[in-house]
Amino acid sequence: MSKRMTESQIVAILKEAEAGMPVKDICRKYGIGNSTFYKWRGKYGGMEASEAAIINLLGELGDGSTSTSRNNRNG
Predict the structure, then answer these.
(1) I want to staple 32 with a disulfide (CB 3.0 to 4.6 A). Which of 25, 36, 49, 52 is the partner?
(2) What pLDDT is recorded for position 11?
(3) What are the Cα distances from residue 49, in Å, to 57, 69, 73?
(4) pLDDT: is 60 or 25 the higher one?
(5) pLDDT given for residue 1 in this prediction
(6) CB of 33 within 8 A of CB of 40?
C-alpha cells in the first residue's frame, strides 16, 4: 500500500527536522524510510509549501503540453 503526501505535508515534515527533531524519530512518526526523507530533503529542502506546489504544477504542465499539439492534427 502506497501513501502519497502532498508537497505541503512534505515541507512541514522537513521543517520539523530543521527545528531539531531527529530524522529517526520523524521517520518513525510518519511511517517513512530514511531514504524517502533524504530524497524529499534533496528535492524540497529549504522551500515553502507554496514553492513546492508551484514546482509540481510546472512539472505536470511540462509532461503533457507536447502531446496535445502533435496528436490533434487532422490529416
Answers:
(1) 36
(2) 93
(3) 12, 32, 39
(4) 25
(5) 37
(6) no
Q: CA-CA distance, 73 to 54, in Å (whole number)?
A: 30
| Alpha-carbon span 46 to 14, nearest angstrom | 8
Dig out the grid coordinates for 53 from the structure. 506546489
| Mean per-residue pLDDT, 46-71 | 74
First to last CA, the chain: 45
C-alpha cell at 32: 517513512
Distance (Å, rounded) from C-alpha 12 to C-alpha 27? Answer: 13
pLDDT (tens digit per residue) in 23-52:
999 999 999 999 999 999 999 888 887 888
Q: How far is CA 27 from CA 1, 16, 37, 54, 57, in A?
A: 17, 11, 7, 25, 26
Cβ(31)–Cβ(2) under 8 Å?
no
